[in-house]
Amino acid sequence: MAGAGLRAAARRWMPRRDHGGPRAASSSPSCPGCGPPGPGAHCPGAPRSAPAPAPAGGAAEPSAHLWARYQDMRRLVHDLLPPEVCSLLNPAAIYANNEISLRDVEVYGFDYDYTLAQYSDTLHPEIFNAARDILVEHYKYPEGIRKYDYNPSFAIRGLHYDIQKSLLMKIDAFHYVQLGTAYRGLQPVPDEEVIELYGGTQHIPLYQMSGFYGKGPSIKQFMDIFSLPEMALLSCVVDHFLGHGLEFDQAHLYKDVTDAIRDVHVKGLMYQWIERDMEKYILRGDETFAVLSRLVAHGKQLFLITNSPFSFVDKGMRHMVGPDWRQLFDVVIVQADKPSFFTDRRKPFRKLDEKGSLHWDRITRLEKGKIYRQGNLFDFLRLTEWRGPRVLYFGDHLYSDLADLMLRHGWRTGAIIPELEREIRIINTEQYMHSLTWQQALTGLLERMQTYQDAESRQVLAAWVKERQELRCVTKALFNAQFGSIFRTFHNPTYFSRRLVRFSDLYMASLSCLLNYRVDFTFYPRRTPLQHEAPLWMDQLCTGCMKTPFLGDMAHIR
């Protein structure tokens, strides 16, 4: 019945095969299997022309049988997707990895940067330019590096960087490099070279090369949003050295770039830019105020733990919330030095006055309206008695903000992922929906029809494999031409996604998404089927039946 309903809906909407909208190029130097268009090239997602069926009364050739199945599937997929299928996902929704009821949450905690304060992307070129100039002026790097400008479309969050190989790459949840997403400088590295660099495999032994927080020693993972200009600068500097044939030590170059980016923060340059023009750099301040006020009005307790200095936080919160912002929070902790704040018991809390001067008296309680610096989570738990699942903490960094709180202390956690909004808008497009649906159906066909191994059938299957790769490249390029989506490496989740699911109960594009839900709302994660729990492959869904299609073709499988 479900299949009949979908087909009935589809009959009211019979679009042309070519939807006429803009589409990504079918060839990309960074994507394997997507060569330049040539004779007979077609738009990925559109059906290939098939040989004419065998004459009536004669036995059909296996290849003709395969193409007939292909055309049947293509028609079913085409008819399956009425217009209302697109725009199903809400960019302002909250997505749950774990069941959680806000009714049980009594205490809400927040990071500051990119959580309470969302920043405009115009901040990234400023960080890039300042760090680039520091490299030239203080580290005596070549003057030619100044010719590089920040490219906001180059990198995505969650990438890994192999320091000794100067390789920026995207790794999936199983520690495999996604082929076509490895770059040295600004140039893609051929797949064959990547495989050779890692001993004949795509697999990266991260347990040997990187620590729990993704900080090396051999491989670094870029997990926060501030790392976008760092990746861009690192790639530009490597590009300059390689392009001019200059010898360099990869470890020294990586450290110099990292230190230059750090200097932008440590020297307070970024804080100065934001403080000078908060209207330009801080987004959704009124929504942050609405979230905090609503929680306090419903009797919730609030606290702030941030690595930023008090003077910077105070100016930002006054801009977003008003001069009395500290009255909303029961505890305010600045310069906390996360993630060591969550694991190191040695650093005591110190009180700050309004001018930022440190007090020397011992802290025996955390008072509302006061400001505290450093400290550690163990003293925080002892002094507040805020423990376990009645505490929900929000942050943007999966390691520094969320990992230890969930794994060691049983707090509930919410991840702020600003990129989610843009990715959902792409997922809601017709181009993405049709490309992905046909890709899934074609994958099912490949799995079922691989039993045909005569010469002509192998040619058909090879054509399908090539078309599937083209579809994957097109879908990847919708998100980012070099690296694709931050959540997917083709069909697998990314390493970033794996950490997101592991360390967060909830995730959302911004804190303002909370305004769309009642304060006693219960989030129920969807039961995502495991492979052995999923009887409905896309080709079965298209036929609207529970039986395995083409069962006769697979009768020999036990």
Radius of gyration: 27 Å
Estimate the mean pLDDT confidence. Answer: 85
Determine and state the CATH class of the domain at 97-119 and 279-418: Alpha Beta
Annotation field: number of helices: 18
Strand order of the largest sheet: 1-19-16-15-3-11-12-14-13
Q: Structural class, from secondary structure content? A: alpha/beta
β-strand percent reads 5-15%
CATH fold-level assignment of the domain at 97-119 and 279-418: Rossmann fold
In one word, what is the shape?
globular
Helix content: 25-40%
**What is the total tally of β strands?**
20
N-end to C-end Cα span: 30 Å
Q: Mind telling me which CATH architecture of the domain at 97-119 and 279-418 this is? A: 3-Layer(aba) Sandwich
Largest sheet composition = 9 strands, mixed
CATH homologous superfamily caption of the domain at 97-119 and 279-418: HAD superfamily/HAD-like
User: In terms of per-residue confidence, which ranges show pLDDT below 50 for 5 or more consecutive residues?
Assistant: 1-30, 32-59, 541-558
Pfam families: 5_nucleotid
Organism: Capra hircus (Goat)
Cofactor: Mg(2+)
Protein name: 5'-nucleotidase domain containing 2
